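WP5 quarterly update. Target: Regulatory protein, luxR family. Source organism: Herbiconiux ginsengi. Length: 555 aa.
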Amino acid sequence: MTADSARSWPRHGRGSSPLETLTHAVLGEDWQAVLVLLGANWPHYMNRHPAELLDALSALPAAVLAENPRLKVAREYVARTLSAQGRPLVFREAVSSDMLRTPLDRCAELTAQSVALRAAGRFTDAVAMVDTAKEVLAGLRHQELQDVARALPELRYQWGLTRELAGQYHAALTEYTSSFDYATATEHTRMQAMSAASASWIHVLAGRTRAARQWLDRIPPSTPDDWWRHRTPAPAQFTRAILAIDALQPETAEHLIDQVDIRQSAEHWAPYQFVRGVVAVYRGGARTQLAELEAFIAEIPEQQAATGGNAALLGLTRHTLFTVLGQSANAHNALHDDRLTPAGSLLTQLAAVIEARWLAHNHQFAAARKFVVPLIGAATAYPRVLVPALFIAGMAYRADGDTTTGNEYIIDALNLAPAYGLFGSITTNMRNVIDDMIAEGALDPAAADPIRHAPASGVTGSPFVALTPREHETVTHAAAGATVTQIADAMFISPNTVKTLLKNVYRKLGVHTRTELTTLAHAHGYPPFTRPVPKNETGTTREPLQNRLRPSRHQ
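Structure tokens (predicted):
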């Protein structure tokens, strides 16, 4: 400990407060006492005195750190936590495996490695590190578990964040719940707030709004002594904003998301951008939001945006913004091609129902029904998926002439929507169907009043949705300026077939010339937005989505 750092410590005698006792032990270079105090009072120091805690950790001699290598990780963790903006997302000091003397040392180092891996976008590898750390924890005897209990709120929160960023929302919720329980037991109020906020976000994303509100209510009130009291956990604001959208209060949602300084929660950039995209549906500014989003993506490591939950949320955000702008080709290409898996994760099911809602908005009910009918049985744990899926299925059956089945599905959706406060999942053209059912005497007007008087979204229809896959491909080439011969060569068809396809396109879109077609196509996002081909976590390239969705030339 240097003379300068010693002078930074208040010179109290051995007092009764944990800080005074730690101060006295550091000044007296009683490192064994310092270790005992850190183990016994870690939550108190993190909640109330993190700067002094960092000074204490920085004062530890090299020999003490060598015997307790987890404290190197702890020192870096506290420094990262105190730095509100621009802090690195990786730990600078790794600890060699031969230095890991205790289970807590191993858990701390494995957790630090998972943080470094997720910062690089290697979410699969990061989850593997978390799994290994959990194996270490599972092998502990009761007394050993008690010895590490005070570190578990932060460890399990980090494990939850790793799983969330990997798209493993159910497993992440389990970790956040455990983190909250340990934080409550050890009176670690800051970790109570962070884990409760993150749990609320996962619940609200799934549409479990009552559970989301319950978790928000579990966030403990801060006191004037809590240094973090001005840093509301970002996921809590995301939750409140989505709840406001669900309650048809977009102005409130905009105010809430505008309060978030994402620089203080850099790893939460994907949900932040997603919520801003949803707000833009009602409040405008989609073009500006899209430009800011793409500028942000250009500045972060490629894998951060190309894999895991980040990639899925990014796809949903781009789809939302492109849809508001009427750019149907870009909206379609923004979603992942695994969206057709009804038994998939929460994010893939959300993608499926969002695609179906877009199709229904453009009166492509048969195509929409292929998405939503499998979801109705698979999405029972995800009301945000189930409510619109029921409604869209009902619209599809009505459009096919089966009004009895259609009305049953829609009434089921209308019964569920108020139970979860999910009025925002019913879009403008869905309200038109409600009006039709009321006129037919099939629905009580009072049952749909909140939805009928909701603010309209800015989503517009797209004439291009009526085109076949081959006609879409023809438009893509034509909008890029290709001649008939060039289109024929690219699609391996004859020029006469190209002319026939163009004639069909002109008729469906209501245009008469190639110039009119090109102008309309550009307004709706043709040729589709292109991005660099991302590499997956093994380092190999992944084929662009528009290529993987391209129809067979023999169709």
